[in-house]
Each structure stands twice: as C-alpha cells, then as structure tokens.
Write a structure and sequence with these properties.
The protein is mainly β. Helices cover about 10% and strands about 45% of the residues. It has a five-stranded mixed β-sheet with strand order 6-12-11-8-9, with no helix packed on it. Strands 1, 2, 14 and 17 form a four-stranded mixed β-sheet that branches. Strands 13-3-15-16 form a four-stranded antiparallel β-sheet. The longest helix is centred in the first third of the chain and has 19 residues, at about 1-20.
Length: about 240
C-alpha cells in the first residue's frame, strides 16, 4: 500500500510540474546602425538558462529520443542556415549536390574538418561542447552556416515576424541571452537580462537587436584566400 501511495504521489507531482510549464513569448526587432529601417527579424536565437535549478535541462514532456538533425548541402548552400541544438547532439551533414564538398569549422565552437566527400554520402559531427560554430565549405566560399549548441532545452528561433515562442518552461528565474548574425559580442552581451517566469508573467517583452558588423570574409581551412572558382570539383 505504501508503494502504491508513493507512486500516486509521484504521478501527481509530475502532473503538477507539467501543468505549471508554459510557453514564454518575446518579440524581436532587428535594426542596422547603417540604415534607419528595420531589417528581417527572423533567425534570432533566444535561450533561457535556469538560475534556480540549473541541473533541470529537459522539460518534463520533451521527447527522449528526438530525430537526428541534418545540415544538408544542396545547391551550394547549407540547409538550414542556422541550427540550434542541445549540447551533446550529433548532427548529420549529407551531401545532396552532384559534386564534392569539404565541410569544416576551425574558428569558434566545435572544431572539425570532414574532408572531401562525394554526392550521396554523409558525415556525422558530435557537438559535445556549448558554443557557436561557424561552418564553411573548403571548395565553395559562398557556403556558410551556424550551429549553436546550448546547455539548456529552453530555446527558440524567431520567425519572419520576429516572434519567439519557447515552450514547456517551468516557473523560476532565468538568464535570457540572444544571438543574431551580424551583431557584435558587446551588443549581444548588452541584450542579456535576468527574467522571472510565473503564471502571470510569460512575456519577455521586446528585444531590439542592432546589427553593427559587416559580413566578414572567411579564409579556407588552411587560413588562405580561396582560389578563383573554376570548377565545382577539386583538382586531382
């Protein structure tokens, strides 16, 4: 009887915890320091890091085995351009172009070099540390992507209207952080704030993100300028 009572109590507590979780919202406005008009507010990443219980890294109703994410190479592009994952996630890099690619990331975050691999094949990268990884192809300089690995399950990416919805957030205190392409580390740090989530406070308000950096030209994996494009295939 005692065991049954304990089981019932446990189920009740889990049910209360799940019901207490809510969807936290925010709005993003992206502006440029070089232009007065607002810019596309999509692809801004917002995440919450728990301050009261930092070890609670997974919402109660999150899937235990989500499908493996893919960063696909197609039409000389990475799809998606920006990917956000929990730290420890393995990401597939399938080549769907009819020629070779050489995916690498040697600057920040996870450092790797997948070498040359042909059409129809794939490679796997385990993002085992939190951080921002800037990803390129050693053959095609126009290709770029960003993978952000986070040590929290409470994150979301803004849509085309700048709206952000972070689901299944328990009440408590959090550190809210923002990442956006073309924004300096100083501006991103200034956007961080401590927030408290409760039944009566589910909106984080508006984040005004100011682009203050121009697109940076990157080098190839050897630290040199790319050769002039003559072919999609590397020399033999």
């Amino acid at each position: 009887m005692l065991a049954i009572a304990c089981l019932i109590a446990s189920l009740v507590l889990r049910g209360n915890a799940a019901s207490a979780q809510a969807t936290v919202t925010a709005q993003v406005h992206v502006v440029s320091e070089r232009a007065a008009h607002r810019k596309n507010p999509s692809n801004v990443v917002l995440w919450l890091t728990a301050l009261d219980q930092p070890t609670a890294l997974r919402p109660a109703n999150a899937p235990s085995s989500p499908p493996r994410p893919r960063l696909t190479q197609r039409d000389k592009k990475f799809d998606p351009h920006i990917m956000v994952i929990p730290v420890g996630t393995a990401v597939e890099f399938p080549n769907r172009d009819p020629f070779f690619h050489n995916v690498f990331s040697l600057f920040e975050g996870k450092r790797f070099d997948l070498g040359l691999y042909e059409a129809g094949t794939s490679r796997l990268v385990h993002f085992d540390r939190a951080g921002v990884s800037y990803i390129f192809c050693n053959i095609h300089p126009e290709m770029s992507a960003v993978v952000i690995a986070l040590a929290t399950p409470y994150f979301a990416v803004s849509d085309s209207s700048g709206k952000i919805n972070i689901a299944n957030v328990p009440p408590g205190r959090y550190n809210a952080q923002v990442w956006a392409e073309g924004v300096s580390a100083e501006n991103l740090k200034a956007l961080s704030r401590e927030v408290t989530i409760s039944e009566s406070e589910l909106s984080l308000g508006t984040f005004r993100v100011a682009e203050d950096g121009s697109p940076k030209m990157h080098k190839n994996k050897y630290g040199r300028d790319y050769d002039a494009p003559v072919s999609d295939y590397p020399p033999k």
